[in-house]
Protein backbone atom coordinates (compact mmCIF):
# COMPACT_ATOMS: atom_id res chain seq x y z
CA UNK A 1 0.00 0.00 0.00
CA UNK A 2 1.20 3.58 -0.69
CA UNK A 3 0.71 5.66 2.44
CA UNK A 4 1.20 9.41 2.91
CA UNK A 5 1.75 10.54 6.50
CA UNK A 6 1.35 14.10 7.79
CA UNK A 7 2.89 14.83 11.20
CA UNK A 8 5.50 12.23 10.25
CA UNK A 9 8.26 13.74 12.38
CA UNK A 10 6.25 13.74 15.63
CA UNK A 11 6.19 11.21 18.44
CA UNK A 12 3.38 9.21 16.89
CA UNK A 13 4.44 9.91 13.31
CA UNK A 14 7.95 8.46 13.67
CA UNK A 15 6.55 5.26 15.18
CA UNK A 16 3.93 5.14 12.46
CA UNK A 17 6.52 5.40 9.69
CA UNK A 18 8.68 2.67 11.24
CA UNK A 19 5.70 0.35 11.71
CA UNK A 20 4.52 1.02 8.15
CA UNK A 21 7.95 0.19 6.71
CA UNK A 22 8.11 -2.93 8.89
CA UNK A 23 4.79 -4.01 7.40
CA UNK A 24 6.21 -3.55 3.89
CA UNK A 25 4.31 -0.44 2.85
CA UNK A 26 5.63 2.37 0.64
CA UNK A 27 5.55 5.54 2.71
CA UNK A 28 5.78 9.27 2.01
CA UNK A 29 6.69 11.08 5.22
CA UNK A 30 5.72 14.76 5.08
CA UNK A 31 7.60 17.06 7.45
CA UNK A 32 8.75 20.66 7.62
CA UNK A 33 12.09 19.41 8.91
CA UNK A 34 13.37 16.58 6.69
CA UNK A 35 16.95 16.94 7.95
CA UNK A 36 15.91 15.98 11.48
CA UNK A 37 13.82 13.02 10.33
CA UNK A 38 15.38 9.96 11.98
CA UNK A 39 13.74 7.04 10.19
CA UNK A 40 15.22 5.47 7.04
CA UNK A 41 14.49 2.40 5.00
CA UNK A 42 13.50 0.91 1.68
CA UNK A 43 10.17 2.24 0.49
CA UNK A 44 10.47 5.56 2.36
CA UNK A 45 10.26 8.96 0.67
CA UNK A 46 10.73 12.02 2.89
CA UNK A 47 9.09 15.17 1.52
CA UNK A 48 9.46 18.68 2.90
CA UNK A 49 6.18 20.56 3.12
CA UNK A 50 4.20 22.83 5.43
CA UNK A 51 0.70 21.38 5.36
CA UNK A 52 -0.90 24.80 5.57
CA UNK A 53 0.77 25.57 2.22
CA UNK A 54 0.94 22.25 0.38
CA UNK A 55 -0.30 18.68 0.86
CA UNK A 56 1.60 16.26 -1.44
CA UNK A 57 -0.84 13.32 -1.56
CA UNK A 58 -0.58 12.32 -5.22
CA UNK A 59 -0.22 8.58 -5.77
CA UNK A 60 -1.49 7.64 -2.29
CA UNK A 61 -3.83 4.76 -1.50
CA UNK A 62 -4.40 6.22 1.94
CA UNK A 63 -3.56 9.43 3.80
CA UNK A 64 -2.86 9.36 7.55
CA UNK A 65 -2.65 12.56 9.59
CA UNK A 66 -1.12 12.79 13.01
CA UNK A 67 -0.51 16.54 12.81
CA UNK A 68 -0.13 18.22 16.15
CA UNK A 69 0.62 21.58 17.75
CA UNK A 70 1.51 22.40 21.36
CA UNK A 71 -1.15 23.79 23.70
CA UNK A 72 -1.39 27.57 23.59
CA UNK A 73 -3.83 30.19 24.78
CA UNK A 74 -3.63 31.79 21.32
CA UNK A 75 -5.98 30.64 18.55
CA UNK A 76 -4.92 27.32 16.96
CA UNK A 77 -5.55 26.80 13.24
CA UNK A 78 -3.20 23.95 12.28
CA UNK A 79 -5.79 21.17 12.53
CA UNK A 80 -8.49 22.87 10.47
CA UNK A 81 -6.23 24.67 7.97
CA UNK A 82 -3.90 21.71 7.51
CA UNK A 83 -6.74 19.26 7.12
CA UNK A 84 -8.59 21.56 4.72
CA UNK A 85 -5.42 21.59 2.60
CA UNK A 86 -5.20 17.79 2.75
CA UNK A 87 -8.87 17.36 1.80
CA UNK A 88 -8.57 19.75 -1.15
CA UNK A 89 -5.45 17.97 -2.39
CA UNK A 90 -7.10 14.55 -2.04
CA UNK A 91 -10.12 15.67 -4.06
CA UNK A 92 -7.84 17.17 -6.72
CA UNK A 93 -5.94 13.93 -7.34
CA UNK A 94 -8.79 11.54 -6.50
CA UNK A 95 -7.44 9.94 -3.32
CA UNK A 96 -10.33 8.81 -1.10
CA UNK A 97 -9.14 7.13 2.11
CA UNK A 98 -8.26 9.44 5.03
CA UNK A 99 -7.60 8.65 8.69
CA UNK A 100 -6.99 11.62 11.01
CA UNK A 101 -5.98 11.85 14.64
CA UNK A 102 -8.14 14.06 16.81
CA UNK A 103 -8.57 13.72 20.59
CA UNK A 104 -11.01 12.26 23.10
CA UNK A 105 -10.98 15.69 24.76
CA UNK A 106 -12.96 17.18 21.85
CA UNK A 107 -15.95 15.54 23.53
CA UNK A 108 -15.30 15.83 27.28
CA UNK A 109 -17.14 13.10 29.21
CA UNK A 110 -16.98 11.11 32.40
CA UNK A 111 -14.29 8.41 32.26
CA UNK A 112 -15.19 5.43 34.40
CA UNK A 113 -11.45 4.72 34.66
CA UNK A 114 -10.52 8.34 35.35
CA UNK A 115 -11.41 8.88 38.99
CA UNK A 116 -11.90 12.23 40.68
CA UNK A 117 -8.58 13.72 39.51
CA UNK A 118 -9.26 13.30 35.79
CA UNK A 119 -13.01 13.81 35.77
CA UNK A 120 -13.35 16.69 38.21
CA UNK A 121 -9.99 18.48 38.01
CA UNK A 122 -7.75 17.78 35.01
CA UNK A 123 -10.27 17.41 32.19
CA UNK A 124 -12.37 20.49 33.09
CA UNK A 125 -9.23 22.56 33.71
CA UNK A 126 -7.35 21.62 30.54
CA UNK A 127 -10.35 21.88 28.21
CA UNK A 128 -11.28 25.30 29.64
CA UNK A 129 -7.77 26.81 29.69
CA UNK A 130 -4.57 25.73 27.90
CA UNK A 131 -6.31 23.16 25.70
CA UNK A 132 -9.34 25.24 24.79
CA UNK A 133 -8.13 26.67 21.48
CA UNK A 134 -6.69 23.29 20.47
CA UNK A 135 -10.01 21.50 20.97
CA UNK A 136 -11.97 24.27 19.23
CA UNK A 137 -9.74 23.76 16.18
CA UNK A 138 -9.86 19.95 16.44
CA UNK A 139 -13.67 20.08 16.45
CA UNK A 140 -13.49 22.29 13.34
CA UNK A 141 -11.20 19.69 11.75
CA UNK A 142 -13.57 16.88 12.64
CA UNK A 143 -16.48 18.77 11.04
CA UNK A 144 -14.49 19.28 7.83
CA UNK A 145 -13.62 15.59 7.71
CA UNK A 146 -17.20 14.41 8.39
CA UNK A 147 -18.50 16.70 5.64
CA UNK A 148 -15.77 15.74 3.18
CA UNK A 149 -17.61 13.01 1.30
CA UNK A 150 -14.36 10.99 1.38
CA UNK A 151 -13.77 7.60 3.03
CA UNK A 152 -12.80 9.05 6.38
CA UNK A 153 -12.15 7.73 9.86
CA UNK A 154 -11.50 10.00 12.85
CA UNK A 155 -9.31 8.42 15.55
CA UNK A 156 -9.52 9.91 19.04
CA UNK A 157 -6.75 8.87 21.44
CA UNK A 158 -6.84 9.58 25.16
CA UNK A 159 -3.77 10.99 26.96
CA UNK A 160 -0.69 9.96 24.96
CA UNK A 161 2.38 8.31 26.45
CA UNK A 162 5.58 6.99 24.87
CA UNK A 163 6.03 3.31 24.27
CA UNK A 164 7.42 1.31 21.37
CA UNK A 165 5.42 -1.84 22.17
CA UNK A 166 2.13 -2.33 20.39
CA UNK A 167 -0.52 -3.87 22.66
CA UNK A 168 -4.06 -5.12 22.17
CA UNK A 169 -5.47 -1.58 22.09
CA UNK A 170 -9.22 -1.02 22.49
CA UNK A 171 -11.51 0.72 20.01
CA UNK A 172 -14.92 2.13 20.85
CA UNK A 173 -17.38 4.38 19.05
CA UNK A 174 -16.83 8.13 19.64
CA UNK A 175 -15.67 7.99 23.25
CA UNK A 176 -13.80 5.75 25.62
CA UNK A 177 -13.57 5.17 29.35
CA UNK A 178 -9.84 4.60 28.92
CA UNK A 179 -7.52 7.34 30.12
CA UNK A 180 -4.34 6.59 28.14
CA UNK A 181 -3.19 5.70 24.65
CA UNK A 182 0.40 4.79 23.80
CA UNK A 183 1.90 6.40 20.71
CA UNK A 184 2.84 2.91 19.49
CA UNK A 185 -0.79 1.78 19.75
CA UNK A 186 -2.05 4.96 18.12
CA UNK A 187 0.37 4.38 15.22
CA UNK A 188 -0.70 0.73 14.92
CA UNK A 189 -4.35 1.75 15.00
CA UNK A 190 -3.85 4.25 12.17
CA UNK A 191 -2.11 1.61 10.07
CA UNK A 192 -4.78 -0.98 10.84
CA UNK A 193 -7.41 1.53 9.74
CA UNK A 194 -5.54 2.09 6.48
CA UNK A 195 -6.22 -1.53 5.56
CA UNK A 196 -9.73 -1.88 7.00
CA UNK A 197 -13.08 -0.41 5.96
CA UNK A 198 -15.03 -1.19 9.17
CA UNK A 199 -14.66 2.32 10.60
CA UNK A 200 -15.22 4.33 7.43
CA UNK A 201 -17.54 7.26 8.17
CA UNK A 202 -17.12 6.70 11.92
CA UNK A 203 -15.17 8.03 14.87
CA UNK A 204 -13.07 5.55 16.85
CA UNK A 205 -11.76 6.21 20.35
CA UNK A 206 -8.53 4.24 20.90
CA UNK A 207 -7.07 3.42 24.30
CA UNK A 208 -4.26 1.37 25.81
CA UNK A 209 -4.78 -0.66 28.97
CA UNK A 210 -1.47 -2.48 29.20
CA UNK A 211 1.59 -0.72 30.62
CA UNK A 212 0.07 2.73 31.06
CA UNK A 213 1.86 5.18 33.39
CA UNK A 214 0.25 7.26 36.15
CA UNK A 215 -2.07 10.12 35.30
CA UNK A 216 0.01 12.83 36.96
CA UNK A 217 3.23 11.73 35.21
CA UNK A 218 1.60 11.83 31.77
CA UNK A 219 0.02 15.19 32.40
CA UNK A 220 3.29 16.79 33.56
CA UNK A 221 5.16 15.55 30.51
CA UNK A 222 2.54 16.16 27.81
CA UNK A 223 1.19 19.50 29.00
CA UNK A 224 4.34 21.08 30.42
CA UNK A 225 7.18 19.15 28.75
CA UNK A 226 8.66 17.85 32.04
N1 LIG B 1 -0.54 14.68 23.86
C1 LIG B 1 -1.68 14.08 24.14
O1 LIG B 1 -1.91 13.61 25.26
C2 LIG B 1 -2.71 13.92 23.06
C3 LIG B 1 -3.96 13.41 23.39
C4 LIG B 1 -4.91 13.22 22.38
C5 LIG B 1 -4.59 13.53 21.06
N2 LIG B 1 -3.36 14.06 20.75
C6 LIG B 1 -3.06 14.31 19.34
O2 LIG B 1 -2.31 13.20 18.86
C7 LIG B 1 -1.56 13.60 17.69
C8 LIG B 1 -0.14 13.08 17.79
O3 LIG B 1 0.49 13.69 18.90
P1 LIG B 1 2.09 13.60 19.05
O4 LIG B 1 2.40 14.21 20.39
O5 LIG B 1 2.58 12.26 18.73
O6 LIG B 1 2.52 14.59 17.88
P2 LIG B 1 3.69 15.68 17.87
O7 LIG B 1 4.93 15.05 18.45
O8 LIG B 1 3.22 16.96 18.47
O9 LIG B 1 3.91 15.82 16.31
C9 LIG B 1 3.08 16.57 15.51
C10 LIG B 1 3.80 16.83 14.21
O10 LIG B 1 2.97 17.69 13.41
C11 LIG B 1 3.84 18.30 12.49
N3 LIG B 1 3.38 19.61 12.09
C12 LIG B 1 2.99 20.64 12.88
N4 LIG B 1 2.68 21.70 12.14
C13 LIG B 1 2.88 21.35 10.83
C14 LIG B 1 2.75 22.01 9.60
N5 LIG B 1 2.33 23.29 9.52
N6 LIG B 1 3.04 21.34 8.46
C15 LIG B 1 3.48 20.06 8.51
N7 LIG B 1 3.64 19.37 9.66
C16 LIG B 1 3.34 20.01 10.80
C17 LIG B 1 5.19 18.45 13.17
O11 LIG B 1 6.17 17.96 12.30
P3 LIG B 1 7.36 18.89 11.67
O12 LIG B 1 7.68 19.96 12.68
O13 LIG B 1 8.47 17.97 11.41
O14 LIG B 1 6.82 19.44 10.41
C18 LIG B 1 5.13 17.53 14.37
O15 LIG B 1 6.20 16.63 14.39
C19 LIG B 1 -1.70 15.12 17.62
O16 LIG B 1 -2.72 15.43 16.72
C20 LIG B 1 -2.16 15.48 19.03
O17 LIG B 1 -2.86 16.70 19.04
C21 LIG B 1 -2.41 14.24 21.73
UniProtKB/TrEMBL annotation:
* UniProt-listed SUPFAM superfamilies: NAD(P)-binding Rossmann-fold domains (SSF51735)
The family database entries (InterPro entries) matched by this protein are listed as:
NAD(P)-bd_dom, NAD(P)-bd_dom_sf, Polyketide_Oxido-like
The UniProt entry, under Pfam families, shows: NAD_binding_10
Q: Where is the NAD(P)-binding domain?
A: 7-196
Q: What's the name of the protein?
A: NAD(P)H-binding protein
Q: Which organism is it from?
A: Paractinoplanes hotanensis
* Native organism taxonomy: Bacteria, Bacillati, Actinomycetota, Actinomycetes, Micromonosporales
Amino acid sequence: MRIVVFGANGGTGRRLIQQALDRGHDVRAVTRQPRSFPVAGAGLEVVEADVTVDAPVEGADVVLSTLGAPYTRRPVTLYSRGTAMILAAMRRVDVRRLVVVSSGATEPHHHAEGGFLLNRVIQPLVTATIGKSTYVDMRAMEALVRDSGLDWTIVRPSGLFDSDSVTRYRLSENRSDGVFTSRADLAACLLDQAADRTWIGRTAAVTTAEGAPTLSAVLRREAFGR
